[in-house]
């Protein structure tokens, strides 16, 4: 029975993360899953996240090291972080950067991920006072 419970809680966590575009934190995952599964424990959430991370199903964002967020989007993408509402958005657009010869010679670079900062559409409107 205990096993069954754990499995269904695990599935609830996986279900919540699937196609989730909000880059939720552990607390957010826990809160949301707990709504439907009152017996879920924070430890189960942590364990499941760990398992999904190891399998490469989700990735951990370290934009804020004290508040890690999780991302199930398997496509190569960049992020936009809103300085006001702190939401993190996926940027799937190709961004080209130019590396100096020095960098290219010093390292064997495999790729890059860009974190863009600013204000999202909602917060931009609030800032300018236009609704
Ligand atoms: Zn915002
Ligand atoms: Zn993302």
Task: Produce the secondary structure layout.
Blueprint (H helix, E strand, L loop, with lengths): L1 H16 L8 H11 L5 H13 L4 E3 L7 E3 L6 E5 L5 E4 L9 H6 L8 E4 L2 H8 L3
Parallel strand pairs: 3-5
Antiparallel strand pairs: 1-2, 3-4
Helix pairs in contact: 1-2, 1-3, 2-3
Mean pLDDT: 91
The shape, in one word, is: flat
Main beta sheet: strand number and arrangement?
3 strands, mixed
CATH architecture designation of the largest domain: Orthogonal Bundle
| Amount of helix | 40-55%
Bound molecules: zinc ion
Instruction: State the low-pLDDT regions, or none.
Output: none
Tell me the strand percentage band.
Answer: 5-15%
Given helix and strand content, the structural type is: alpha+beta
Total strand count, please? 5
- Into how many domains do the coordinates divide? 2
Main β-sheet, spatial strand arrangement? 4-3-5
CATH fold name of the largest domain: Arc Repressor Mutant, subunit A
Give the topology string: H per helix, E per strand. Answer: HHHEEEEHEH
- By CATH, the superfamily of the largest domain comes out as Winged helix-like DNA-binding domain superfamily/Winged helix DNA-binding domain
CATH class of the largest domain: Mainly Alpha
Amino- and carboxy-terminal Cα gap: 53 Å
Annotation field: number of helices: 5
As a whole number of angstroms, the C-alpha radius of gyration is 18 Å
